[in-house]
């Protein structure tokens, strides 16, 4: 191959965002996207994490501006609600798109005529 | 660069499969389909006596009878608005108790809009037909279908289709298509059913009873499916 690389030829894995391309953080974004608003306890149960571990992942996503966290009370019980930001929504969509491309690329290169 | 450079934790197939599984779980946890169907079944069954006693029937010397379903007009708009409000509140509370947001608002809005459409159509018909004759008999099929579509029982089905779409609930979608086919194509919601000696009141009550029972069976079925899933 000669000349400047065509952007469409770029391997999908090169565009993966380290913040999003991680099982737990992608799970948080997926749940929050579907639920619109999700409580800390629900995330902890679904993702099978300790509170400390989940907090670390939430901090990474919040610092990247992908989620918003809102603390409040329900009765005497403290509750933290998580919502997806517009940037988080875009990041999730792009990540899922890249994962699909990556799988398609692997399947294409895996067929006998390409070997 | 190949997929081998992506960590095992970032295996694309596993990640996508996890995303799909989590999304599906959230949708299941947000649903209270049985409750929506139970509320609508209750409203339908409670509406039968309102139609029965609110109906004015005038029989002519030639043996034919004219009837006006005032009970439907007075009962259903308020009942449907109350039903959609109840369903929306219960959905939001149930989802919140599970730590989730809810997607029910567009359904409640669709329900309110269909209620306004049905009420406007019935009021227009009540004002228009006393002073204008019906078109030539027999009425065309599309006329009967439109008449059935503009009943509260069909409007319930239209709103349920929206709920099925919002919840991405295939089972509810299939149930609703069956329900709408029953209400629009099978049950004579607007001209009665049964042997002549039953009279017009009983003839119009039977299709409503069947509709209420179908919704009730749907509620039982979805509740049982939810229990089994848990």
Automatic annotation (TrEMBL), chain B:
The keyword Membrane applies. The chain crosses the membrane at residues 32-53, 73-92, 104-129, 141-163, 170-190, 202-225. Keywords: Membrane, Transmembrane, Transmembrane helix. The keyword Transit peptide does not apply. Signal peptide: none annotated. This is DUF998 domain-containing protein. It comes from Micromonospora andamanensis.
């Amino acid at each position: 191959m000669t000349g400047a690389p065509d952007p469409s030829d770029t391997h999908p894995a090169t565009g993966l965002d380290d913040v999003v391309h991680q099982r737990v953080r992608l799970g948080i974004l997926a749940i929050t996207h579907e639920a619109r608003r999700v409580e800390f306890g629900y995330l902890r149960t679904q993702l099978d994490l300790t509170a400390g571990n989940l907090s670390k992942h939430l901090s990474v996503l919040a610092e990247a501006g992908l989620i918003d966290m809102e603390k409040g009370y329900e009765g005497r019980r403290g509750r933290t609600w998580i919502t997806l930001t517009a940037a988080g929504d875009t990041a999730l969509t792009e990540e899922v798109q890249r994962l699909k491309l990556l799988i398609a690329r692997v399947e294409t290169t895996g067929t006998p005529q390409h070997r | 660069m190949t997929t081998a450079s992506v960590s095992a934790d970032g295996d694309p197939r596993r990640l996508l499969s996890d995303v799909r599984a989590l999304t599906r779980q959230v949708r299941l946890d947000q649903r209270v389909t049985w409750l929506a169907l139970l509320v609508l079944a209750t409203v339908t069954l409670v509406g039968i006596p309102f139609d029965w006693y609110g109906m004015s029937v005038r029989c002519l010397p030639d043996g034919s009878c004219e009837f006006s379903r005032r009970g439907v007009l007075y009962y259903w708009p308020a009942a449907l608005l109350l039903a959609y409000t109840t369903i929306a509140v219960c959905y939001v509370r149930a989802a919140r108790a599970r730590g989730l947001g809810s997607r029910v608002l567009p359904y409640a809005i669709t329900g309110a809009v269909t209620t306004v459409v049905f009420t406007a159509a019935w009021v227009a018909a009540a004002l228009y037909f006393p002073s204008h004759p019906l078109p030539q008999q027999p009425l065309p099929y599309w006329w009967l279908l439109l008449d059935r579509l503009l009943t509260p029982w069909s409007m319930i089905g239209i709103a349920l289709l929206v709920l099925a779409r919002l919840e991405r609930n295939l089972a509810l979608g299939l149930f609703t298509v069956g329900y709408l086919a029953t209400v629009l194509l099978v049950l004579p919601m607007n001209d009665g059913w049964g042997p002549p000696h039953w009279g017009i009141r009983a003839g119009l009550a039977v299709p409503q009873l069947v509709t209420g029972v179908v919704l009730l069976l749907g509620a039982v079925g979805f509740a049982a499916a939810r229990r089994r899933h848990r």
